[in-house]
Write a structure and sequence with these properties.
By secondary structure, the protein is an all-alpha fold. The protein has a domain of 69 residues. The N and C termini lie far apart (106 Å). The mean pLDDT is 78.
Length: 137
């Protein structure tokens, strides 16, 4: 076996090795701090996005109601009244579903299925529009 006490290392080599060890520890700590900070930022952005999306949907619904009322007044057509409670529940449900998608729970984001659903809804609205009903009579 080799006797460690007889090995001669210059002090400069030992100092360099110790300095590198401290440098690596400092680098890893800094990197860990940056990753933690980025994780917190991403989580805040996710929450803000979900809250903003729900607020935008609620604002869009309010604008649609106003536009429908104006349309009724100017054209004489009547549109079935909105049930505010049902609208609020639907908006809340959409918010929960959006948050679940952002959190990666439950439903996944399927862009083509979403576009298909939007097309189906637009067709249903067009088919049930009062002007279409008058033309069918």
């Amino acid at each position: 076996m080799m006797d460690i006490s007889k090995i001669k290392l210059p002090i400069a080599v030992v100092v360099i090795i110790v300095a590198q060890a401290f440098g690596i520890i400092w680098y890893v700590a800094t990197l860990d701090s940056a990753v933690s900070q980025l994780q917190n930022t991403v989580e805040e952005i996710r929450l803000n996005t979900a809250e903003t999306s729900v607020a935008v949907i609620q604002n869009d619904i309010a604008n649609i109601k106003i536009n429908l009322e104006k349309l009724e007044q100017t054209s004489g057509l009547s549109v079935e009244p909105f049930d505010d409670n049902e609208l609020k529940e639907t908006t809340k449900d959409l918010g929960v579903k959006l948050q679940n998608i952002l959190d990666g729970k439950g439903a996944t984001w399927n862009k083509s299925a979403l576009h298909k659903r939007i097309e189906d809804l637009e067709k249903a609205v067009d088919d049930n529009h009062p002007s279409k009903k008058k033309n069918k009579k």
